[in-house]
Amino acid sequence: MLTESSKKCINCQQEVSDNYCAHCGQRTHVKRITLREGWNDFWARVYGFDGMFPNTLRDLTIRPGVAARTFLSGNRVKYYGPVGYFFLMITLFLLILSMLDMDVAYFMNHAGRAGLQTPPKAGSGQEKVMEQTFQLVSDNLKIISFLYIPFQAFASRYIFFRKQNLNFLEHMVLPFYLQGHIYWTSIATACFLKISDSFIFSYPLLIITFLYIPFGYMNMFSTQSKVVSFLKGIGVYVTAQLFFGLLVAIIVVILLFINPEIFELLKPSNN
Fold first, then answer.
1. 263 and 166 together in one domain
2. Chain segment 119-141, per-residue pLDDT in tens
3. Which residues pair with 20 in a beta bridge?
4. CB 209, CB 182: distance < 8 Å
5. By the 8 A CB rule, do 85 and 56 touch?
């Protein structure tokens, strides 16, 4: 434990004159581990320096484009980084699903059935293919979610907002923030599904998601009218969905050639 006389950081051994080390951020005065100290330390890390987590949560809800613009301007203290927040939300989503005694495959299965006018018959080949697909997504959720981001950035950088003087990687900041924050709607949907065994609550949240993305672009790019930025934001969302859907279709075709058994499962005789 650091004493008052030593005035050296317990972590990096640099001279310290404040409550935190200017070199590594280590606290100067470290207390013994107790339940209260552990609780305070946990909330200090969640809250972050200068309210980082509450700032991120609040501003991504009411003005996501401003948050992204602030980060791009060089402010790295006010908000969580976009990539870190994106993976934090996926991890939180998976953790809450685990606490609710469900996984992503179960969640997507209910979502898929709710979105189909005529769900596949139990035990049919179509049902087996759908379950295998959902399991594949469940096992690779972080990778698949990450792969979607470049498509949104591409549509923004090279089609709809190409005159904004931002490079491709800079156009990825807002999608990371938006897609990460959208996981709050997935968390709310999962909680409602656990309580009611119904996916009806997801439809209003889908509408919110559809409006949230262009809203983010609307308040990020203020050099043109809000209506134009909002409509372009819709264009970014739709174009990214189409490009990503095309990639998925190509992968599915490849898998069909690699694994002919899928053809057998999809035959009318098996459905």
1. yes
2. 555 555 555 656 666 677 777 78
3. 27
4. yes
5. yes
Give the type of residue at 179.
Q
Q: Residue 108: which domain range? A: 81-270
* Residues 2 and 126 reside in one and the same domain: no
Among 109-113, 120-124, 145-149, the range scoring the smallest mean pLDDT is: 120-124
Question: Quick one: tokens of 108?
Answer: 């997507």
* 3-state SS class at 29: coil
Contacts of residue 52, defined as CB under 8 A and 6 or more positions apart, other chains included, come to 77, 78, 79, 80
**What gap in Å lies between CA 261 and CA 239, rounded to an integer?**
32
Residue 194: closest CA among 98, 103, 100? 100
Number of H helices and E strands in the chain, helices first, is 11, 0
pTM over 0.85: no
Give residue for tokens 């949560």: 57
Location of structure tokens 């009806």 = 200
Answer yes or no: are the C-beta atoms of 64 and 217 closer than 8 Å.
no
Element (H, E) at 121: none
